[in-house]
Amino acid sequence: MRLEFHPEAELEFIEAAVYYDKQVPGLGERFEFEIRYATDLLLDQPEIGTSVSPDLRKFVLIRFPFTLYYSVADDVLRIEAVAHQSRRPGYWKSRVDR
C-alpha cells in the first residue's frame, strides 16, 4: 500500500509543522514525526481508524490536537485532511470526491 496526501492536506501538514517550529524550535520536527508514525501505523493497519462514512475514516493523533481523515482505495491510503481539532468541523468535506 502506498501513501498519498490530498494537496490541501499536505499544505495543512506543512503549515502546522512550520507554526510549531516557530513556537518552539524542534517542535515542528516532533509534529512531523507524529504524522509519520500515524501514517506508518495506518499503512500497516488501515482499519484502525474510526469509520466516518463508508469510504472515510479518521485517526486522532495522541500528542497534537489534530485528526487525520483518510480513505483507502485501490491499494492507496490517501490523507484527505490534517485537521486541527479546533477548526470548523467538516471544513474539508468538499475535498473528498464521492
Q: Which series of helices and strands comes N to C?
A: EHHEEEE
What is the CATH-assigned architecture? Answer: 2-Layer Sandwich
Proportion of beta-strand residues: 25-35%
CATH 4th-level superfamily: RelE-like
Query: Which value, in Å, is the CA radius of gyration?
Result: 13 Å
What's the N-to-C terminus distance?
A: 21 Å
The total of beta strands comes to 5
Q: What's the CATH C level?
A: Alpha Beta
Write up what this structure looks like.
- The protein is of the alpha+beta class and 98 residues long.
- It has one domain (2-86): YaeB-like fold (2-Layer Sandwich).
- The chain has 2 helices and 5 strands.
- A 5-stranded mixed beta sheet has the order 1-5-4-3-2.
- Strand 2 and strand 3 (56-60) form a beta hairpin.
- Helix 1 packs antiparallel against helix 2 (27-44).
- The longest helix has 18 residues, at 27-44.
- The protein is globular and about 40 Å long.
- The mean pLDDT is 93.
